[in-house]
Write a structure and sequence with these properties.
The structure is a single chain. By secondary structure, the chain is mainly beta. The chain is 15% helix and 41% strand. Among the domains are: 94 residues; 203 residues, YVTN repeat-like/Quinoprotein amine dehydrogenase (Methylamine Dehydrogenase, Chain H, 7 Propeller), CATH 2.130.10.10; 124 residues, 7 Propeller (Methylamine Dehydrogenase, Chain H), CATH 2.130.10.10. It contains 19 helices and 64 strands. The two termini are 67 Å apart. It holds the Pfam family CPSF_A. This is Cleavage and polyadenylation specificity factor subunit 1 isoform X1.
Length: 1103
């Protein structure tokens, strides 16, 4: 074997497999992903059982991977910690000849796969750019004479990507492009965004994060007193086209009318081109307000429902008018039974709930396009009052809910009732009616027969799983359960128990494996969200069957046949949604479903805290919208000027027509926009005056190895080293640093680099800051850009660094940014942190800090302090106080009083700091520090306390194990919440409270906020209860996991003064009965706890 291996040609490239990941694509082909992000194919050439040779070939460039795995036989997943993770489809052909067309087809493939390709193009995924790059697609054969060997050629197509914003090294808080500078209160917060340094190497990028959505406005009109808005289509008889073009048309059809309901009248506007009022010329009911409007009969008719009746219209002409009588049973009892309270439309049915809790159904006949009023017999006889109801249209050729019933029902042909007599089946599928009664029971009926197919007792309690009560206890019913829920001592909580469901909604959005969602809004503003699934358990359902038939009760088994017995619901948590204060008044319908707004689907929730609930990959993403305050009405408009955009009316009485920003990706906890940098970003800062972002970026550059060695050799004085003898071959990557000054693009495209400041060779930029210095000659403040650098030349050379000051100007028409160097000076030691302190410049150079004054041309030292002992990693300033973090020696607290810097106190422990910041709560100042063991500690300075050794030692106020390395803190002022606005006097301590937002190397964001004593005690006792009441995440007990980790070093535990909101937020996912019980055990009420948790969410909605 030895002899033959020497004859093998050497391959034409070198590769390092250090830190590579691998997976098998076929039984003889393995794929390796190297640390530079290249994909290599290793083909095993074998003959029988003998491996003849291994063939390694470059395939293409992709994302830097942390893990790689094959899924099935045609997909693999590239998981990445440093860039976006990709799902790639591969196909395998034989022989090298197929490759060029294969590559073409592959690039075409990415584009043609619309749903994910659209999403990928929008996410501007850096990895995707790499996958398409032409020059990296070549497949090197091992040798030219190998052409006849069966070399497998693979082509790849990216099918999906998961956006990753980690590792967050640094971030800056700046203004958005579409900020509204006149906004006030909480609406002002959606003017801001976080610009984060994320990723590494070629996957390095800027991630722009926004917590709340701010739509781009097209136009706005004043419209006081609005109660609701609806857009409707109008289709004449031209709808009998063939099926495929009809579906395409439905997506692109323009809306015909916009109906606006005011307090005492209704306006109708034509929407085809521009909005023009046609109220006078149409047969709509315009003398009073409208309750709802929508399309029936495949968009051929419009139904408009008002308080006492309804009209069916064909375009502008009325074809039928209905008026609602009081239902026969209680005709004498009250007159308000004929007033409509809420409406739900599912073509061809309309469900009405009257103000007295009775129900009427309008059933349409597609052949004559007319509608008849019925009261379903099941509601006619029952005395139970309905608190909320909705229709659910299970669309499509294979309705989803049918899967959950037994086979007996499939054969009974439920769909026939809906087919029109004219032979056109409008959306085939089934219609169901979901009803919730005042007593909290939820039932699902099929329409129009109204036989009950699913029922749940106590829907309001919000259990984690919902199962048909019939299955839980088929014979005895659930009589015994309901009594023992109200245990002794719960009577005072009884008013909490009497919470009604005020609105229901069930919808299934389109998607490959989509399942319906069920939403319920409770009277106290809680939102219950459930996701349906099919329960596949054959053995237990047969047991139920057995027990039923053994009872020999024919009635039960016949109802059992049509039950949706395999239907289950699982509760989904609604993240970052702050509950709103419900107004006492007639509840309007707050949920409106949208099928396509800028390519997204979901529902919009109006009210005092409007939110977008978007559905991606069967997952709910909740994005609040703060910028317009409360919103009273919402609908979607599609016409010439507004392409599938939202229209909404604010509580101030403004109608706004908008577009969702298309450059953001909404399939994330917060909407995000990624801007590829093709280099590693290290630090970013915000230049507010010019709206620019200076960023330190390093790009690896390949240098010849002998050149690299000779530069090191030059420094080594007196070393016998002859550069001519160097005969090292090959290249070595060296990081080259620059400071890029970038500006956000006005239209939301990729950001523009306005200027770039290159560093010298082997000089690393360590910090960039915008500083305000007092020019001592002109006595004026100057805002300059300061950069601190270090020369990295091996350990034999004394460290040096430079401090650079730049002025940044725009020319008159703002087209160009001029950056000019004002000053540069070389100092001993690396310059790792800079800050401006009362007009002076504080520079951390090596193991000391020096304060300089600026004369306009010179920096002159005025004071210095010989701490920290090793190397400053972070530097914060409040007034004249300085907080320093050292790389190994924890934190130092220093004050500046002319003429000197004084060390006030320090932490005597050894701690490897990563980031520091001040935390301000009224008049108390605390010092926050994070370390490499993933902890956070909060210290305070108290010279009067005896343990502080006359003030030399900082005392611990709280400590917490975050579980991620925190690399950056940012201090932001807490927002006023509801309880603050009412309870406190202006100018009190409550106004001067700051929280600290932080970013971690895992790509997560968090916040540390001060609490007042009373709330803290309440939430702390709640936390102790929840440790045993809530299932632990990943099996980590919150008490032990959140203990400070000291990695074997001596550590004296600090006080337990911090509560974990992650754990507290599980409280609202508990069933209502458990919530009340826990609240009672800690001596408070559920309302009180909910309001505290809500205040925390509101107080920290900074973005």
């Amino acid at each position: 074997m030895v002899t033959s291996s020497q004859e093998m040609p050497r391959s034409s490239f070198t590769v390092e497999l250090d830190a590579a990941n691998a997976t098998w694509l076929a039984n003889d082909v393995a794929m390796l992903s190297t640390k530079t992000g290249e994909l290599l194919l290793l083909t095993i050439m074998y003959d029988g059982r003998i491996v003849q040779k291994l063939d390694l070939s470059k395939s293409r460039a992709s994302v830097l991977t942390s893990g790689i795995t094959t899924i099935g036989d045609s997909l693999f997943f590239l998981g990445s910690r440093l860039g976006d993770s990709l799902l790639v489809q591969f196909t395998c052909g034989l022989g090298g000849s197929i490759l060029p067309p294969g590559v073409q087809e592959e690039v075409g493939d990415i584009e043609s796969d619309t749903p994910s390709a659209k999403r990928l193009r929008r996410s501007s995924s850096d990895a995707l750019q790499d996958m398409i790059n032409g020059e990296e697609l070549s497949l090197y054969g091992t040798a030219p004479n190998n052409a006849q060997s069966a070399q497998k050629a693979f082509s790849f197509a990216v099918r999906d990507s998961l956006i990753n914003v980690g590792p967050l090294k640094d971030f800056a808080y700046g203004l958005r492009i579409n900020a509204d500078l006149n906004a006030a209160g909480i609406a002002k917060q959606s003017n801001y965004e976080l610009v984060c340094c994320s990723g590494h190497g070629k996957n390095g990028s800027l991630s722009v994060l926004q917590q709340s959505i701010r739509p781009e406005m097209i136009t706005q009109e004043a419209l006081p007193g609005c109660k609701g808005i609806w857009t409707v289509y109008h289709k004449s008889a031209r709808s009998h086209l063939n099926e495929s073009s009809r579906v395409a048309d439905e997506e692109d059809e323009y809306h015909a009318y916009l109906i606006i309901s005011l307090e005492t009248r209704t306006m109708v506007l034509q929407t085809a081109n521009n909005l023009e009022e046609v109220t006078e010329n149409v047969d709509y009911y315009v003398q009073g307000n409208t309750i709802a409007a929508g399309n029936l009969f495949g968009r051929r008719r419009v139904i408009q429902v008002f308080a006492h009746g309804a009209r069916i219209l064909d375009g502008a002409f009325m074809t039928q008018e209905l008026s609602f009588k009081a239902s026969n049973v209680e005709s004498g009892s009250s007159s308000d039974s004929s007033i409509v309270s809420s409406v739900s439309i599912a073509d061809p049915y309309v469900l009405l709930r009257m103000t007295n809790g009775s129900i009427q159904l309008l059933a349409g006949d597609p052949s004559s396009c007319s509608v008849s009023v019925t009261v379903p017999s099941i509601f006619e006889s029952s005395k139970k009052s309905v608190s909320a109801c909705t229709l659910y249209h299970d669309k499509g050729p294979e309705p989803w809910l049918r899967k959950t019933s037994t086979d007996a029902w499939l054969s009974s042909g439920m769909g026939e009732a809906i087919d029109g007599a004219d032979g056109v089946t409008h959306d085939q599928g089934d219609v169901y009616c979901v009803v919730c009664y005042e007593n909290g029971t939820l039932e699902i009926f099929d329409v129009p027969n109204f036989s009950c197919v699913f029922s749940i007792d106590k829907f309001v309690s919000g259990r984690t799983h919902l199962v048909d009560t019939f299955i839980q206890d088929p014979v005895n019913g659930l009589k015994k359960n309901t009594e023992d829920v109200m245990g002794p001592g719960q009577k005072e909580n009884a008013k909490d128990m009497k919470i009604n469901v005020v609105e229901l909604m069930m919808h299934r959005w389109i998607g490959l494996y989509s399942r319906p969602f069920l939403f319920g809004i409770l009277a106290d503003g809680t939102i219950l969200c459930y996701h349906a699934y099919v329960f596949e358990g054959s053995e237990n359902s047969s047991k139920v069957d057995g027990s039923v038939s053994s009872q020999n009760s024919i009635g039960l088994s016949s109802t059992n046949a049509s039950r949706l017995r395999n239907l289950r619901f699982v509760r989904v948590s609604v993240e970052n949604y702050a509950k709103e204060e419900m107004s006492s008044g007639t509840p309007s319908q707050r949920m409106s479903v949208f099928k396509n707004i800028g390519g997204s689907q979901g529902l919009f929730l109006t009210g005092s805290r409007p939110s977008w609930f978007m559905v991606f990959r069967e997952r709910l993403r909740v994005h609040p919208q703060l910028c317009d305050g409360p919103i009273v009405a919402f609908t979607v408009l599609h016409n010439v000027n507004c392409n599938h955009g939202p229209i909404y009316v604010t509580a101030q009485g403004t109608l706004k027509i908008c577009q969702l920003p298309s450059f953001l990706s909404y399939d994330n906890y917060w909407p995000v926009q990624k801007i590829p940098l093709k280099g590693t970003p290290h630090q970013v800062t915000y230049f507010a005056e010019k709206n620019l972002y200076p960023i330190i970026v390093s790009v690896p550059v390949l240098k010849p190895l002998n050149q690299v060695l000779s530069t090191i050799a030059d420094q080594e004085v007196g070393h016998q080293f002859d550069p001519d003898n160097i005969n090292f071959e090959g290249n070595y990557p060296i990081e080259e640093f620059e400071v890029r000054i970038m500006e956000p693009d006005k239209s939301g495209g990729p950001w523009q680099t306005r200027a770039s400041i290159p560093m010298q060779s082997s000089e690393n930029a360590l910090t960039v800051r915008v500083v305000t210095l007092l020019n001592t000659t002109t006595r004026e403040n100057e805002t300059l850009l300061a950069v601190g650098t270090a020369y990295v030349q091996g350990e034999d050379v004394a460290a040096r660094g430079r401090v650079l000051l730049f002025s940044v100007d725009r020319n008159a028409d703002n087209s160009r940014t001029l950056v000019s160097e004002v000053y540069s000076k070389e100092l001993k030691g690396a310059i790792s942190a800079l800050a401006s302190l009362q007009g002076h410049l504080l520079i951390a150079s090596g193991p000391k800090i020096i304060l300089h004054k600026w004369t306009g041309s010179e920096l002159n030292g005025v004071a210095f302090c010989d701490v920290p002992p090793l190397h400053v990693v972070s530097l914060n300033i409040v007034k004249n106080f300085i907080l320093l973090g050292d790389i190994h020696k924890s934190i130092y607290f220093i004050s500046w009083k002319e003429p000197q810097l004084n060390l006030l106190a320090k932490d005597f422990g050894s701690l490897d700091c990563l980031a520091t910041e001040f935390l301000i709560d009224g008049s108390t100042l605390s010092l926050v520090v994070s370390d490499d063991q993933k902890n956070v500690q909060i210290f305070y300075y108290a010279p009067k306390v005896s343990e502080s050794w006359k003030g030399q030692k900082l005392l611990s106020r709280a400590e917490f194990h975050v579980g991620s390395r925190i690399t950056k803190f940012l201090r932001l002022q807490l927002l006023p919440t509801i309880s603050d606005r009412t309870g406190t006097t202006p100018g009190s301590d409550k106004t001067n409270r700051f929280a600290s937002v932080f970013g971690t190397l895992d790509g997560s964001l968090g916040c540390i906020a001060p609490l007042d004593e009373l709330t803290f005690r309440r939430l702390q006792s709640l936390q102790k209860k929840l440790v045993s009441a809530v299932t632990h995440v990943a099996g980590l007990n919150p008490r032990s996991f959140r203990q400070f980790r000291s990695n074997g070093k001596a550590h004296r535990p600090g006080p337990d003064n911090i509560v974990d909101y992650e754990l507290l937020s599980h409280y609202e996912m508990l069933p209502l009965e458990e919530q009340l019980e826990i609240a009672q055990q800690i001596g408070t009420t559920r309302m009180q706890i909910m309001s505290n948790l809500n205040d925390l969410t509101l107080g920290t909605s900074f973005l």
